[in-house]
Design a protein that fits this description.
Structural class: mainly alpha
CATH architecture: Up-down Bundle
Number of domains: 1
CATH class: Mainly Alpha
Shape: globular
Helix content: 55-70%
């Protein structure tokens, strides 16, 4: 979608001449002020990312129940996502300097990814979104390890399909960088859909296990560990969905002022995509999140581990001792990840 028509009365923008007119705003316009203020807010959020990354890094490094391979994988993930956030901030600072003070026009001067800069989309946004979606998909896959083969295969195919969609939308964001189409639209729409689907899968699985435990063990806690894990997962998805939905809606708004305001969620979204998984990693690594073994190696009702031996009585057989503390993560148990 092209920017709103600058000839509309009250539009704070003016047209830069040329056969293929690109538009920009005068330095005193609200658009430039939004870029400056948003960059300042982005800097504050980036500082939060740095603090969370350090805490997560220390928590994973000192974790006792993680293998060396798992530690290395998570530490590399934390470092990579932090770099995406840093790259987004660096682009915002450069954009603020060049666009506001020197009036350099990336879009019309042939910069290879000028369309992304032109639409205030961070070049690292596709990678940050894909990284956040990947962690959520991994948590979902771990949670469904204890189900029967057909359901596990179906979930696996669905997760692979969702990740391929995420990667495709990230590639389209780069391909459409210099087109007459808002480049972040496919990425935002896909990540909203993916997070909603994964949230539904995780919540349904946790609610099912809570129902089984209440039915077999008579557990009736108002705030069970399952509910706290659900809240944590929904919170992680909601952060991304809210900002992505705001950016998507404002990016397609016909009103020039609202369109200009889309720079705010678009600029903050890369940092949000980093903050969201870091919060999960910190809670798990530092032991502040409830960790409950809920797959087949603890209670497997699908395999008749709960069997009615005597009418009116229930016999419960466990393959391993049940604990509210997470066992070793080597065997893939779900630990609120």
């Amino acid at each position: 979608m092209n920017p709103p028509n600058s000839t509309v009365p009250g539009n704070p923008c003016y047209i830069i001449g040329g056969a293929d007119p690109a538009w920009n705003c005068i330095p005193e316009s609200p658009y430039h002020q939004e870029i400056v203020y948003t960059t300042l807010v982005s800097t504050a959020v980036w500082c939060l990312v740095v603090v969370l990354a350090v805490i997560a890094f220390r928590g994973i490094y000192n974790a006792k129940n993680y293998s060396l391979r798992r530690k290395r994988s998570l530490l590399c993930y934390i470092a990579l996502m932090s770099l995406f956030s840093t790259g987004s901030l660096a682009q915002g600072i450069i954009l603020m300097q060049n666009l506001v003070f020197t009036m350099y026009d990336y879009y019309s001067d042939g910069f290879i990814l000028g369309g992304l800069v032109y639409y205030s989309v961070a070049i690292t946004l596709p990678f940050a979104v894909t990284g956040a979606d990947g962690l959520m998909a991994w948590r979902c896959w771990i949670l469904y390890q204890g189900v029967n083969y057909r359901l596990r295969l179906s979930v696996c195919c669905l997760l692979v399909f969702l990740l391929l969609c995420s990667l495709t939308s990230a590639v389209l964001t780069i391909v459409l960088a210099n087109g007459d189409f808002a480049p972040a639209t496919p990425l935002l729409a896909v990540t909203i859909t993916i997070n909603l689907i994964l949230s539904a899968l995780i919540v349904s699985r946790l609610l099912y296990h809570e129902f089984i435990l209440k039915k077999t063990l008579g557990i009736a806690e108002k705030t069970s560990p399952f509910r706290r894990v659900i809240a944590m997962c929904v919170e992680s998805c909601a952060l991304i969905v809210v900002f992505a939905a705001l950016a998507l809606g404002m990016e397609w708004a016909p009103n020039a002022l609202v369109w200009n305001l889309s720079v705010i969620p678009l600029t903050l979204l890369p940092h949000i995509c980093v903050v969201s998984p870091l919060l999960i990693i910190i809670r798990v690594a530092n032991g502040r999140a409830p960790t409950t073994t809920i797959i087949s190696e603890s209670i497997n009702s699908d395999e008749s581990d709960v069997e009615k031996k005597v009418p009116g009585h229930v016999s419960i057989r466990f393959k391993r001792p049940v604990s509210t503390q997470a066992p070793s993560n080597e065997d893939g148990n779900f630990t609120a990840q």
